[in-house]
Amino acid sequence: MDDLHRKVKPGEGWHGVVKRSEMKYLDLGLLRLGRGQEETLGGRLHETVVVLTSGQCDAFVDDSRKAERLERANVFDAMPWAIYLPAHHKVRIKAKKPTELIVSTAPASGKRDLAVRIIAPDQVKPVTRGSGNFEREIRNLIVSTDDTEHVVFGETINGPGNWSSYPPHKHDTNNPPTEYALEEIYLYKFHPPQGFGFQRVYTQGRKSDQTFLIENDHVVLLKKGYHPVVAAGGYKLYYFWIIAGAQARLCFVDDPEHAWVKQWEPGAPLPPPAAAKQAKPEKAPIQAAPKSPKKTAPGRK
Fold first, then answer.
1. Which residues on adjacent β-strands are paired with residue 117?
2. Which of 262, 263, 256 is CA-nearest to residue 280?
3. Which of the 8 DSSP states describes residue 276?
4. What is d(CA 87, CA 120) in angstroms, rounded to the nearest whole number?
5. Which among 7, 44, 127, 290 could disulfide-bond with 123, CB atoms 3.0 to 4.6 Å apart, if both were Cys?
6. What angle do CA 142, 220, 11 make, to 5 degrees?
7. What φ, ψ does residue 189 adopt, rounded to 5°?
8. Is-above-0.85 flag for pTM?
9. Cα 178 versus chain centre, distance
10. Cβ of 6: how many Cβ atoms within 10 Å?
């Protein structure tokens, strides 16, 4: 596979997919635990994101003996449980049933007084973006570095044949408040699981332009450029996304060649070529974070 595209191997245990040396901030892996198995996550000099994709487990934060029970049938039929750990915090995960978790970390100084956050499914309010065959469901988990040092993250669901990250947008240039220089990782799942889709990653001027065939448990690194993604007909697409930067905000810039689709109503006549070319790209709004997440111990400096 290409150096931006890889597949998670099957089987229990830790599957590191993206190494810290490959990105400025992020690494990412899947942790699969059998019943009764446990693992401790988190650390002194990095912040950690944990998202349950399936299974049932108990989570013990820091030295607490009281567990939070996490359970999820799958990513398509149930909202996520997620845990955010600032620097100096840890969580012990003990599987009650076979369990799979996405784990991603980023370096952190620990100088800010940040709280551990446990986000429950009933705190996740999905929103619908786009229309027609680029309508998708977005599940925002943490979307502002007011609450973290470097990361924001969430989930997206594409219906069969639908596009997301569309019109194509990018966030690779530091030009606040319109755009921030951010890296991102996508991890994909399909329903039914033999499904597939395509991920395109291209830069302005097409100096770099790559398209990847994506399948269940594939991962793509988004270091720069526009990055639209589509599900094949008949298959739902899920992807976990995590974004990181010096100041991670969900502000991005649309490809000006395709920005016109935001003003187009599906079923309406297509505009003449000149009118489509004249449309201006929009800055996407900063999305609201889940309200009143559960909190445990505050972060240490």
1. 84, 295
2. 256
3. H
4. 21
5. 290
6. 90
7. -140, 155
8. yes
9. 21
10. 17
The Cα–Cα gap between 137 and 48 comes to 25
What single DSSP character describes residue 277? H
Cα torsion 257, 1, 27, 34 to 10°: value is 130
Cα separation, 101 vs 44, whole angstroms? 21
DSSP for 101-151 reads: EEEEEEE----S-PEEEEE-GGG---EEES-GGG-EEEEEEE-BTTSSSSE
68-85 per-residue burial string, b: 16 or more CB within 10 A, e: under 16: bebebeebeeebbbbbbb
Residue range 82-127, pLDDT digits in tens: 999 999 999 999 999 999 999 999 999 988 999 999 999 999 999 9
- Tokens 């570095």 label which residue? 145
The secondary structure of residue 205, as a DSSP letter, is: G
| Residues 249-282 pLDDT 10s | 888 999 999 999 998 888 899 888 766 665 555 5
CATH superfamily of 5-298: Jelly Rolls (2.60.120.10)
Which helix or strand (DSSP H or E) is residue 31 part of?
Answer: strand 27-33
CA neighbours closer than 13 Å in the CB half-sphere of residue 294: 13
What letter represents residue 266's amino acid? P
Interatomic CA distance for residues 241 and 171, integer angstroms: 14
Distance of CA 137 to the CA centre of its chain: 13
